[in-house]
Design a protein that fits this description.
Elements: E1 4-8, E2 17-22, E3 25-31, E4 37-41, E5 55-57, E6 60-62, E7 69-71, E8 88-94, E9 97-105
Pfam families: Rieske
Domain Rieske: 4-100
Protein name: Non-heme iron oxygenase ferredoxin subunit
Length: 109
């Protein structure tokens, strides 16, 4: 699959997550305070909770239900109760378009 447009960069609100879906793959897209756009899997690995409803702090996204925070760069959980990472997707900015390929995941690291 090739990268698909999910939204305009100008539609993203800094330090807020936006839920998008490509071919059944739900993602949380975040424009962080440094101006970088991230895309991670939208489902908390601790529970079936949408991460896009959570809270942004720097380069982390915290699940609103149980408080697990995930790195927007690696997908790794930074605290319990989650202990499994979420996928992190490569993001391409083309002009004002935010493009994501759900088949291209960044290595957890």
């Amino acid at each position: 699959m090739t990268a698909q447009r999910v939204c305009a960069l100008s539609e993203l609100v800094q330090d807020e997550a936006r839920r998008v879906e490509i071919d059944g793959v739900a993602m949380a897209v975040v424009l962080d305070s440094a101006g970088e756009v991230h895309a991670i899997g939208d489902t908390c690995t601790h529970g079936d909770i949408s991460l896009s409803e959570g809270f942004i702090d720097g380069d982390t996204l915290e699940c609103w239900a149980h408080g697990s925070a995930f790195s927007l760069r690696t997908g790794k959980p930074l605290n319990l109760p989650a202990y499994e990472p979420v996928p992190v997707f490569a993001v391409v900015i083309d002009g004002d378009d935010v493009l994501i390929d759900p088949d291209v995941k960044k290595p957890v690291g």
